Amino acid sequence: MSGGQAVRVADPDGGEVLVELLDAAGPFRVEWEWGERRPTGRRELTLGLRYDGAEPAAATVRVSRSVAAVADPWWLIPGLFYGENRPAACQRIFPRFEAGADRPEEMVSARWGFRADRAATPAVLVWGDTGGTALIADEESPLGPTGLAIEHEAGRATVALLFPYREYPVTYYGSALALPARAATHVWRPGESHVLTVATSALAPDRHAYAPLLREDRDLRLPAAPIEPWEDVAEAADIAAEGLYRWHYDPDPGVLLETVGFDREVSGTNGERVDRQAMHVGWVSGIPWAAALLEHGLRRGRPEHVAAAERVIGFICANLSPSGTFWGTWYRQSGWSQSWSHVKDALHARTLGEATLFLLRALRLRPNPAWEAAARSNLRVIAGRQRPDGNLGTLHHAATGEVLSWSGASGLTWVAALAESGDPGHLRAAERAGQYYASFVEDEFVYGAPEDVDLAPTSEDGYAAVLAYMALFRRTGAARWLDLARRAADWTLTFRYTYNVRFGPRTPLGRYGFATRGADQASPSNQHLHAYGLVCTAELVELSEALGDPYYAERAYETLECFRQLLPAADGDLNAYRGMITERYYQTDCFQPKGMYLTLSHAWSAGVLLLACEQVLALPARLDDVTTGEAAPVG
User: Fold this and answer.
1) CA 109, 111, 115, 121 torsion: positive or negative?
2) pLDDT digits (tens, 9 = 90+) for 232-245
3) What angle do CA 452, 455, 459 make, to 5 degrees?
4) What percent of the chain has pLDDT over 70?
């Protein structure tokens, strides 16, 4: 065949795969062989390619499949692209699909190409009018880094693998300012040949059909993706607790500072110019991680950790907003203020809900009338604002309590808090909200949880959904909630890396041999690896027990293994101090070059690792308590 012409490879299960050598003027030959059909319907396709042109040619192999899609197709590139990917109302700018669009300056297009290391699994899936198809590869190929691509034109939706990758129509680097399109290059010499192996499968019309396929794919990748934790769970807990207490805790006035610089000699000011003098009440700082420190201090008999945790929780509980909820953020220079929102005086539901949820858990460890009063106030006012359809709101006015936005699913964290309160009225509110937010889970498009990316779909939305539906199942035993928890967990795990990204040998992550399996892509908008998935460690284990299926517990444990890597156990390790834990590991070229990590310690990074370690260390007793559903009501 001549370059640019497609070789059509018939699939034994129906349809065809197209193979092209783009930009090669000379002829090429393709031989192929199909593998056996696996339980999910997946087959491996081995392609032998030979270039017979007279002159060298920089060319790209494109392997593609298409489905009919008169209506808008539904895309899935795990961790990277979900449906339209960016809701039209989202203020955060990152790649968005729109049929017929070609506005690269706005990052809106009907065709996108990406490098594969941006994806948690190097796979690209699409659903059309009556069903879907999937293509799967490895991050690297004999021709260089793999690419993943989607395109919709003339009623056909196409997914493609590119060897090597091309990024188009623009390259996303973490900001609203797009970079020019990029492409890796492989120059074919006359007579050169290579073997490529891809996998493909048809997909049932249900969008959740990805779950068994990705689960099977993860199992196939396991032998080639080992993780070697640096520390055992108990020592990791000690390191994380010391990091929170030594570096993030400030007794004046009683806060966990959100970020602390690794370098304490910056500008000769002991690092203070790079330390963020602020504390959220939940999410990136605040009560959840103070509660983890409290549990650790009680278990280890460390009164200084207990006192610090109590001071942080007490300071937050003593300063409620005029509307009766927590504030969003405390700042050294200005005191208590709103969340990170473009809307004036807005408090974000996810942050408030997470703070309240972990306050309830702290109360089980350390009863305190002032804490209980704060929890009761938050629960009462949020339940009172619930819409008849169950929506709990996204943005709440700090002074008046008016709900300023109902968009997205950020209220999911409140479902868990209301369910865990032990109050029958709050449980009814949680069930109404659980039913309202179920549509997000069933549509495979959950978004709105983090304050900083507006309505973008994120891994954090998945964690919130798992927390919510496991809390409802725990309190009611209803199969409906267990099924939603399972679906939410499957969606969450699409963000979790199933392979070890290859790093340059002189990059920090390459030099330290950082294994990425078990880490989560933060979101299609924030393309870096993070550890926040540890927040629902106990819930995933509990889900496995309820289903009689070890898979979800295995995925929880692999994440804890992953983030017991790169732990500074002594001052000087990793160019940091003992207990300083980064929030960002750069597995692709976004924000920073691939192979770097952020040299800032985050309170939540230490806190979520500490939380997961404490949950695992207490698993037998904790799960006994969890499954009985015993909780003192907080009305």
Assistant:
1) positive
2) 999 999 999 999 99
3) 75
4) 96
